Amino acid sequence: MTAIEQLTSWVKESQRIVFFGGAGVSTESGIPDFRSAAGIYQMENDTPYAPEEILSRRFFDQHPEVFYDFYKTKMIHPEAEPNAAHVFLAELERAGKLDAVITQNIDGLHQLAGSRKVLELHGSIHRNTCLGCGRAYTLDEVMRSEHTVAYCSCGGVIKPDVVLYGESLDDGVIERTVTAIAGADMLLIGGTSLTVQPAAHLVTYFRGERTVLLNASATAYDHRADLLINEPIGVVLGEVGRRLGFGSADAPAIQGE
C-alpha cells in the first residue's frame, strides 16, 4: 500500500481528525515561508535590521514605519488564493470528519477556502485594532492608508492582530487547541517544521493512534509519526481528496470503512 493509499484509508476510518499546519501549507499559494532558502527571513530588505527584530512587539512600538514597510511588502499577499490543501480541509470539515484546523498562518486562506473550525495561533492579517481607542479595521483599510503606518481616525496607531516576537499567544485559542488535539482520533500535521514554540509543543497533547506528518523537509517529530510523507502538501491532499470524491455532489457523504 502506498503512502497516499494509506492516508486515504485512514481518513475514511477516522471521525475526529485535527489538522495542525504551518507556513508550508500556503507556499503552493505563492506565499513564502519563513526559514527556507526562499523564505522571508532570507529576503533582502532595505534596513539594517534582521526580520526577526522587525517582527517583534518592541520594534513595532519603537519603529512603526519600518515595521509597516516590511509588513506590507513582505508579509501581505492579497492576490493569494487557497490551494488544494486548503480546499481538501474545507471539504473534510463539510464531510463531518474534521474537528479543527489549527494554523500558525496569518493569511486567512483556510477561511477563504470554506473552513469554519479554524484556530489561528498567531492571529490574522484580516483583523486590525487601534491601540488608542480599540476600533477595528479591515486589511483593506490598513493597506489603503495614506501613510506607511496605518493610523486610526483618532490618531492612534493601528496594530495588526498578529502575534509578534515578545507577545504571548491567546489563552483561549491555546485552550481550544489543546482540547481539539487531545480529543482527536487522527492528527494530521502539515507544512510545518515544528520549530516555533510554544505552538509546536501543542502536538504533544495528541493521545490518538494515528499521527500523519506531511512536510517537504525532515522535522524533529518525524520519529513519532505513524505515516511520514515528504511531498508537497497540496499535491498529496489534492490526490487524497480526488480519491475520496471531494468536489463531487456526494463528497460530504463519505463513510468510514
Distance between the termini: 16 Å
Beta-strand content: 15-25%
* Annotation field: number of helices: 9
Quickly give the CATH architecture of the largest domain: 3-Layer(aba) Sandwich
Which fold name corresponds to the CATH topology of the largest domain?
Answer: Rossmann fold
Quantity of strands, as a count: 9
Percent in helix: 25-40%
Anisotropy-based shape:
elongated
Average pLDDT metric: 91
The first-level CATH class name of the largest domain: Alpha Beta
**Cα-atom radius of gyration:** 19 Å
Structural class: alpha/beta
Largest sheet: 6 strands, parallel
> How many domains?
2
Strand ordering within the main sheet: 3-2-1-7-8-9
- Contiguous uncertain segments of 5+ residues: 249-257
Q: Which superfamily, in CATH terms, is the homologous superfamily of the largest domain? A: TPP-binding domain
Q: How do the helices and strands follow one another from N- to C-terminus?
A: HEHHHHEHEEEHEHEEEH
Quick structural gist:
The protein has 257 residues and is an alpha/beta fold.
Q: What key attributes describe this structure?
A:
257 residues; alpha/beta; Rossmann fold; SIR2/SIRT2 'Small Domain'; 2 domains; six-stranded parallel beta sheet; three-stranded antiparallel beta sheet; elongated; disordered C terminus
Describe this structure in words.
The protein folds into 2 domains: 148 residues, TPP-binding domain (Rossmann fold, 3-Layer(aba) Sandwich); 76 residues, SIR2/SIRT2 'Small Domain' (2-Layer Sandwich). With 257 residues, the chain is of the alpha/beta class. The strands form 2 sheets. Strands 3-2-1-7-8-9 form a 6-stranded parallel beta sheet, sandwiched between helices. The protein is built from 9 helices and 9 strands.
